[in-house]
Amino acid sequence: MSILPLDSAAADFGGHHPNAGEARRAWVVAALGLAGLAFLAVPFFGLFISTPWSQLQLQHGDLSSLRASVIYTLVAVTLVVIFGTPVAWWLARYEFRGKWALELLVLLPLLTPPLAMGLLLSMSYGPYSWAGQPLAQLGLTLTNTTNAFVLAQIYGSAPYFIVAARSAFEGVPRELEQMSLTLGQSPWRTFWRITVPLAKLGLGAGVALAWVRALGEFGIVLIVAYYPQGIPVKLWVNLQDTGLSAVYPLLWLFFVIGLPLPLLMGALSRRNSMRH
């Protein structure tokens, strides 16, 4: 029988020599995995070969949408981290009756279709809604304003950060936190010097997810903040007004801006896993 690559890898790893049946199963799993990866890659490969590289030209308003998306996404993600971190830590560290209801509340924006979520926000924060009217009297209009844009991004990204941050906090050994408290450190100091450093990779992954989700949020933004136009809405406008050729430059810019942070966090996570 010929020696297969997966056989060698398995033998090197555990000293175990798989039989023919195990080798066939390994090849089947590998083939299915490669097929799945190829399926995921199809749209991005299609974008690469379809892009008219020699004719790329930004449309009027593309740079404004780029600036709006980057600035307001930074604001939204900052607010998500400030208010989402306590929620994640609370859910990770405490057990109490009715906790499932709070967990469901965190997940509801994630489980609701974006367009439906936008409609829900309009019902609550629209100019004639129960919350929108008093807020408008205070000078805070949450329809087609920058505040509405950030609000939509927060609802679209906060659940991703909270879920990731909660998982990161749950991965921190409580014994280390208890040891710090026993040595006289305050809970606040223990949080910043023990909990956060040990959970930093998970927290970073949560920030990366929130960044991408806020930057690419379309459905919620389309309903509550058509203006100012960010990248996703401007892509849709370009497609409607000019056609497919008008979306390529902005689409590539979106990937250039949106992907580095998740890729960096993925690389750091893999490096940390290899060290352990």
Describe the structure.
It is built from 14 helices and no strands. By secondary structure, it is an all-alpha fold. The chain starts with a helix and ends with a helix. The N terminus is likely disordered.
Keywords, please?
276 residues, mainly alpha, 76% helix, 0% strand, disordered N terminus
> Helix fraction?
over 70%
Mean residue pLDDT: 90
Low-confidence stretches: 1-13
Radius of gyration: 24 Å
Number of strands: 0
Q: In angstroms, what separates the terminal alpha carbons?
A: 36 Å
Basic shape: globular
Q: What's the tally of helices?
A: 14
Strand proportion, as a percent range, falls in under 5%
Query: What profile does the largest beta sheet have?
Result: none
What is the element string, with H for helices and E for strands? HHHHHHHHHHHHHH
Specify the structural class: mainly alpha
Q: What's the layout of helices and strands?
A:
Elements: H1 5-14, H2 20-50, H3 62-93, H4 99-111, H5 114-125, H6 132-137, H7 146-170, H8 174-182, H9 187-198, H10 200-216, H11 219-224, H12 231-241, H13 248-258, H14 260-275
Helix pairs in contact: 3-7, 3-10, 4-7, 7-10, 8-9, 10-14
Concise overview:
The chain is mostly helical and 276 residues long.
